[in-house]
């Protein structure tokens, strides 16, 4: 087998995502899964669920993951990579534990995992690893021998993730009226998280204090800068830009990353900015946070202000992103075989780490997390 197409030691890829409801009856049970252990009343969940009910109770995320699954399988086949691809979710069917059980019954023992979250944070990385640990423990409790799982590295700066977004920004600028296009600002948006969680995101060496945002903010800024620079190079226009946030939840007294996108639009309008392109740099696909918080809520705020806005596309199932996943898989496989892989990354931060170190994106209450240096299960044993 050619080295560049050799997935060994992996015998399968798992696409691991968040999940979402696929009908009105699914909304509250889905939100109960997401908020399990927080004691949130059912009536409050019904209120939160109104965002989903506006779209018939259907989150677009599952359909988009099916498209990505098809794109991955097509890319693998076209490039001679004979590796099955499975899909499991944290919070809705197909559930992660069920998918891993199927993979074990199908004979898979070494599984590479791609999470649909490109950046370092507790909720975007370690929590996925905790869910993997829970699923592996459940399989062991059933009498099955759990497989070894390895999570692929963060890909916020991989060319296959950034280049589709560069094209999306260019298309969104082109969609603006001629009179405001050159003066448009770029608002790079991502999910707000508590500043305490942001400060402890990434490796311990990347942790910060006082709301500076740790690796989470640094990685987003790096990705945004690459996109903005590429847009300038392609258009000859230097569009001012800023990283802003959306989708805040939780108690009002807890500090979260700011400014919110709607507040930013108000400030931009007050400053005389002629137009804004909203760039959902923090999201892999157009799921509910994009469809509601940007396309519905932020768009309504812009209309109220009389501020022209467009929203650029996420990478979704773009063939370049599928190729990036193949690249990440083969890169990690080569490293596991003891080779020195070529790692693709744009921007100033370089390629991320393969194995999450101890203290990486810690939780408030320590829990086992698979696919990391602190995992006491088969991964740590195999590396000892």
Provide a descriptive summary of the structure in words.
By secondary structure, the protein is α/β, with parallel strands linked by helices. It is about 45% helix and about 10% strand. Strands 2-1-3-4 form a four-stranded parallel β-sheet, sandwiched between helices. Helix 4 packs across helix 13. The longest helix is centred in the middle third of the chain and has 22 residues, at about 215-235. The radius of gyration is 21 Å and the shape is globular. Mean pLDDT is about 95; it is low at about 380-384.
Secondary structure blueprint with pairings:
Blueprint (H helix, E strand, L loop, with lengths): L11 E6 L9 H8 L7 H7 L1 H4 L7 H18 L6 E5 L6 H10 L4 E6 L6 H20 L6 E4 L7 H17 L2 H4 L3 E7 L3 H5 L14 H22 L5 E6 L14 H10 L5 E4 L8 H18 L3 E3 L7 H18 L41 H6 L1
Parallel strand pairs: 1-2, 1-3, 3-4, 5-6, 5-7, 7-8
Helix pairs in contact: 1-2, 4-13, 5-6, 7-10, 7-13, 11-12
Derived structural class: alpha/beta
- Which value, in Å, is the CA radius of gyration? 21 Å
Largest sheet: 4 strands, parallel
Helix and strand sequence: EHHHHEHEHEHHEHHEHEHEHH
Low-pLDDT segments = 378-384
The percent range for helix content is 40-55%
The number of helical elements comes to 14
Instruction: For the largest sheet, list the strands in their spatial order.
Output: 2-1-3-4
Percent strand equals 5-15%
N-C termini distance: 29 Å
Output mean pLDDT. Answer: 94
Q: How would you describe the shape?
A: globular
Number of strands: 8
